[in-house]
Amino acid sequence: MDATDRKILAVLQADASLSVAEIGNRVGLSTTPCWKRIQRLEADGVITQRVALVDPEKVGWGVTVFVAIETGDHSGEWLENFATLVSAMPEVVEFWRMSGDVDYMLRVVVPDIKSYDAFYRKLIAGAKLKNVTSRFAMERVKFTTALPMTA
Amino acid sequence: MDATDRKILAVLQADASLSVAEIGNRVGLSTTPCWKRIQRLEADGVITQRVALVDPEKVGWGVTVFVAIETGDHSGEWLENFATLVSAMPEVVEFWRMSGDVDYMLRVVVPDIKSYDAFYRKLIAGAKLKNVTSRFAMERVKFTTALPMTA
DNA sequence: AATGAAATAAGATGCAC
DNA sequence: GTGCATCTTATTTCATT
């Protein structure tokens, strides 16, 4: 992956609706080689998917909560089961296994506070957890799916 | 926004590379009305953008850190300045203003631990902060940009 | 590897109903 | 909403540098 590939990725991370010709213009390539590079980036799994991003407020899922979980001592099998269970919950949009004091970090979206309570009850009903800390977001100051493409 | 719009959004959140005809098939519409709905959803800002998602590991930004920040007592102007400063950092992919014990939550991506240290120094050099807690992610168990489309 | 041209297929867009 | 015409773009091929 060279610098031109990274330029293409930068463009596609910002706007995947552009034509190949336009992307080529922006990175200094004609359409054919630009198209070939994009195909390769997809085949190599560098580009994983193309998605539409939706305004959370406008679809009624405007409440974001960060959930820090300490699972305590559990078997590998238990943890695997826990991961499967939590991953399957559609409100969980991010689910990270952490190092340090917190074992897992979730980002959860819900329509309102009341439905967060419902989620929380589902969560603790499904698994015996040592500690769960919920922190509510007030404002999304920045959110991007674009990774930096400059070293 | 009716149930059909939500179906369209569910499809486009999962795969924005599908043709309008194929999306129509999946939601029970022919191409023209499906296309019109998509145009409207974009015009109304429900769909905010179409982007390519990239594998963080494969582009060398595989380290994710959650940063919880307590700013302490500061003026509104100071906080605004802080928000602008942090938003401009490309490593910061998420930046949330929180309620409760933590004032801000960041999700930061970096190539490696060493570059996180560089980021951290930049962060604390730019603003006088009361407390900064960095938590490192070990594994991305789930990550989706798709919001639930069912009530 | 890239370019430009060109041909074909697929899809987006617009119009009549 | 449907069906169809048209226009744009994606995709592939090829000769050339």
Explain what the structure shows:
Two copies of one chain form a homodimer. The first copy, chain A, has five helices and five strands. Chain A starts with a helix and ends in an 8-residue tail after the last strand. Chain A has a four-stranded antiparallel sheet. The model of chain A has no long low-confidence stretch (mean pLDDT 96). Chain A has helices spanning 3-14, 20-27, 31-43, 76-87, 113-126, and strands at residues 47-54, 63-70, 92-98, 104-110, 131-143. The radius of gyration of chain A is 20 Å and the shape is elongated. Chain A has two domains: 3-44, Winged helix-like DNA-binding domain superfamily/Winged helix DNA-binding domain (Arc Repressor Mutant, subunit A, Orthogonal Bundle), CATH 1.10.10; 56-136, Lrp/AsnC effector binding domain/regulation of amino acid metabolism (RAM) domain (Alpha-Beta Plaits, 2-Layer Sandwich), CATH 3.30.70. Helix content of chain A is 39%, strand content 28%. Chain A has 151 residues and is α+β, with helices and mostly antiparallel strands. Chains A and B meet through helix 1, strand 1, helix 4, strand 3 and strand 4 of A and helix 1, strand 1, helix 4, strand 3 and strand 4 of B.
Largest interface by Cβ-Cβ < 8 Å:
A-B, 65 and 65 residues
CATH first level of the largest domain in chain A: which class? Alpha Beta
Q: Can you write the helix and strand succession of chain A as a string?
A: HHHEEHEEHE
Query: Under the CATH scheme, which architecture of the largest domain in chain A would be assigned?
Result: 2-Layer Sandwich
**Structural classification of chain A:** alpha+beta
Shape of chain A: elongated
Q: Return the average pLDDT of chain A rounded to an integer.
A: 96
CATH homologous superfamily heading of the largest domain in chain A: Lrp/AsnC effector binding domain/regulation of amino acid metabolism (RAM) domain
Fraction in beta strands of chain A: 25-35%
Residue stretches of chain A low in confidence (pLDDT < 50, at least 5 long) are none
CATH topology-level name of the largest domain in chain A: Alpha-Beta Plaits
| Amount of helix of chain A | 25-40%
Number of strands of chain A: 5
**Largest sheet, strands/sense/barrel of chain A:** 4 strands, antiparallel
User: CA-to-CA gap between the ends of chain A?
Assistant: 13 Å
Sequence of strands across the biggest β-sheet of chain A:
3-4-2-5
